[in-house]
Amino acid sequence: MKLITAVRGFKDILPSEVGKWRYIEDKAGEIFGNFGLHEIRIPVLEKTELFKRSIGEATDIVEKEMYTFLDRGDEYLTLRPEATASVIRAYLQHSMHAADHVVKLFTIGPMFRRERPQKGRFRQFHQINAELIGMDDPRADAELILILICFLKSVGMLDPRLEINSLGCSGCRPSFREKITGFLKDKKDGLCGDCLRRLETNPLRVFDCKQESCREIIAEVPQLLDYICPECRDHFGKVKEYLTALDISFAVNAKMVRGLDYYTRTAFEVTTGSEGAQNAVAGGGRYDGLIKELGGPDIPGAGFAIGVERLISLLPMKDEEFAAHPRLFIAALGDEAGRFAYTLCNRLRMQGIRAEMDYLGRSLKSQMKRSNKLNSSHTLILGEREMLEKKAELRDMKTGTQETLSLDNINNIVKRMNIEHPTSNIEC
Ligand code: HAM
Predict the structure, then answer these.
(1) Which of 18, 126, 266, 326 is the least crowded, having the fewest Cβ atoms under 10 Å away?
(2) Where does 15-172+228-314 sit in CATH, by number?
(3) Which atom of ligand 1 is least distant from the CA of 122?
């Protein structure tokens, strides 16, 4: 019968890879915690309206990439394409703003976008997402970027390259849009079909077009930074000052507009300096109008998301560094030794020692091979003679040295395995 495989663009994270994932997720929890962020866990499914209202109807994500379906209850639901909208929905639904004027949250999990699968682009991918809610001070923007860079460096990203821009505010952006629209209308003949449509719905999206003819026009397009209001200019200037004070290097990219409509003022992306990888590993920015847009009070916010698959692909770490191996393999010969080994193996596990054995009743040679394959640090050899004498041979698999241990008390074995702090000690 034909095998059923995973959906295109959806990937399994295999046992050999999970160690790296856990390491990265734990590091995020640790570093974000130092900066006062608390974890929130939110559903993967939301009402479609949430994303339409926050990300924007005229964005690629909402227009083309969402997994949306009509639920049996006649309601349109969507697998979340990003986390910010859901975090803000939860923030408002649980009146977090009433409990504290500043709320700092992070969340980790899968997102879903029906993009064309290719290197670094999946249909289910994972994000580590941080949001600082309640602060419009430029120090919050710089702090947010510091959290991101600190985290990326802490997991071993060697060359995070930060680009920043200011997208202006609801006051100054409309006049800029008009300027852009006027400029692009004059160059209409050179624009692709998508951009002609964007010109009507969302002219800033033209900046993201990858078509060669459009790129030539975009190269000459007016710069957003030349049109932002004095307040936005001052805010952006201070963000740059604080970044410098925090020793974070950056480049201003006046053409970076980001693919979601909720951004205001500071926007940023991190790419790698390494060759061949142009995709952003992380992106974010300020969204001062979003909370109000979603029906809440006028509260500012800013955040970022890191693409975990992209991050992992850039890190020089190997699966093997994170692999867990048995501390002890028990090789038993004969029925009596087999019975003893079975209880011993499970008792050791309950005392926090990763122990293994097999149930195939094979020769000592085969069991030693298995111990080697599992990369056990030690093997305990239990034969008929050992059982009579109530002792066992303990072999160090690295050095090959062997010593004799008494079986009267399994604590001897626990001690010998140098477990000072067993991970668990289960009584049952
Ligand atoms: P975004 O730029 O759409 O921002 O996504 C952030 C990161 O998610 C990207 O830089 C990339 O690493 C990863 N990513 C996005 N799409 C894919 C994909 N198809 N396959 C693999 N990785 C992908 C946001 O999602 C905003 N919510 C970030 C934010 C949080 N802004 C404020 N708060």
Answers:
(1) 18
(2) 3.30.930.10
(3) 20
